[in-house]
Design a protein that fits this description.
Alpha-Beta Plaits; alpha/beta; 2 domains; ribosomal protein; binds S-adenosylmethionine; elongated; single chain
Amino acid sequence: MEVAVRVLPEGVEPVGSIFDDLGTGGTVIEDPALSDSYRDAPADTQALDFSTEPQAWPQVKAYLPVDDRLEERLQRLRQALADLPLREKPELSTRELPETDWATAWQAYYKPVEVGRKLVVKPSWEDYQGSGERLIIELDPGMAFGSGTHATTVMCMELLEEYLRPGDRVIDVGTGSGILAVTAAKLGAGSVRAVDNDPVAVRVALENAELNGVTDKVEVLESDLLAMLAQGAAPADLLAANIIADVIIKLAADAARFLVPGGRFIASGIIKDRDKDVRTAINKAGFTVREIKRDGEWVAVLSVREA
Ligand SMILES: C[S@@+](CC[C@H](N)C(=O)[O-])C[C@H]1O[C@@H](n2cnc3c(N)ncnc32)[C@H](O)[C@@H]1O
């Protein structure tokens, strides 16, 4: 059930706290004043629907399961709203929504994506009828980043296709769904060490390694960047990191330490305004930039560790 409370601006936070206490697990705030401030803004706000004149007060919405606790929760909500010391009483409305499996609704829009010359990313629940020439990366990204549809992932996969050599020892930093780790294994890497600081990503990456039958090659660890990969452990021939510019800058010196001379460093997640800063850090860490890929706002950089 959608529960909406229209309230004076100063009541938005208190209403949010009331919803928190009810255990709604999050709220939506629709603030006409905020929408008005976007009204004259250009291009990227065009998706907002201004077709109906907004009422003056903001609205706080939350969602409750329709179960035997609903009536008691609504009663507590009404009481808490009545107790708020506001100049005007908030207005409460409720609306029952059709049952949808929100957690999996996105799956309907996730289809196989061909990447580069030799790869295809296939959702685990979809069929793919290709010519049989592409390597299939089976994927269920769940709550982890890395479905193969983001420009940064695609550019990293294309660079892997181009620069990975059979038998390479690979490190994938910020593995997310494990998409780059699995791609590396399928392209012929000898071993892949994948790390992420998000335990959900670690679990999902392992599941995807299993789905693709590459657990003999892919190891997944929870780690802040390279912290859990002991210094002095086997060096790598190729290191990929699709995170964000600031993290790549922080990682560059360690990446150089982990790579053999001539080792390749694929860095992405770089927004184009930060491209120069990242390349400066990469050069300073002892790499020579060999290739730069761009797609819209995003940049990926392939560099090689100098001898
Ligand atoms: C943009 S996603 C990339 C996922 C996947 N590698 C891809 O190319 O699609 C970045 C991932 O880096 C992880 N990450 C961010 N900061 C990190 C850190 N300090 N150490 C390890 N992983 C990190 C995030 O949890 C996220 O899963």
